[in-house]
Amino acid sequence: MTIFARIIAGEIPCHRVYEDAHVLAFLDIGPVSDGHLLVVPKETKAQLHELSDESAAAIGRVLPRLARAVMQATGATAYNILQNNGAAAHQAVMHVHFHIIPKLGSAGLGVGWNPGTLDAARARELVASMQAAL
After folding, report:
1. Which of 40, 80, 44, 85 is nearest to 58 (CA)?
2. Which of 3, 13, 76, 89 could form a Cys-Cys staple with 84, CB 3.0–4.6 A?
3. How does residue 99 score in pLDDT terms, banded at 50, 70 and 90?
4. Is residue 26 within a helix (H) or strand (E), and if so which, with residue range?
5. What is the value of pTM for the model shown?
C-alpha cells in the first residue's frame, strides 16, 4: 500500500484542500514552492494509462479549479503541472498523482528540455500506430 493510499484511507493525516468521490488534493509536505499541491485519484493505480476513464475524467475536471485556487492563495501568476509515470520518469510514489507547483520567483519547478527533430516518415508511422492503439 502506497503512502497516498494510506492518506486516502485516513491512516496518515494530510493538509486536505479538496476531496470528492474520486479525487483527493492536499499540500505536499516536501514542497518545491509555497502552495505545492498534490492531486491524487482515489483509484489505486501506479500509472496514468492504467486509470479508468471515470477517474481520469474526475481529475481533469478538478485540475483547472485547483490550479486557480493555488494561484489565488499564493499570488503566483505561473505554475507547472507535473505528472510522472514509472521510476525511469522520476516517479517516486507508485500511485498516480499530479503536482501543481506555483512558480514564485526562483522557487518552483526547474525544467530542462532537450528538443530533437521529427522526421516526416517517422511522424506518419507514429500517427498510424497511435491511432490504431486508440
Report:
1. 40
2. 89
3. very high
4. strand 23-27
5. 0.89
Q: Which domain holds residue 57?
A: 3-110
Q: Is 36 noted as a catalytic residue in this protein?
A: no
**Cα distance between residue 88 and residue 84, in whole Å:** 9
- Check if the beta carbon of residue 62 is closer than 8 Å to that of residue 54: no
Grid coordinates 526562483 are at which residue? 106
Out of 22, 36, 95, 97, pick the active-site residue.
97
Provide the CATH number for the domain around residue 61.
Answer: 3.30.428.10
Is the distance from CB of 69 to CB of 36 less than 8 angstroms?
A: no
* Domain-located, residue 12: yes
Would 133 be classed as within a structural domain?
no
**Rounded Cα–Cα distance for residues 83 and 131 (Å):** 23
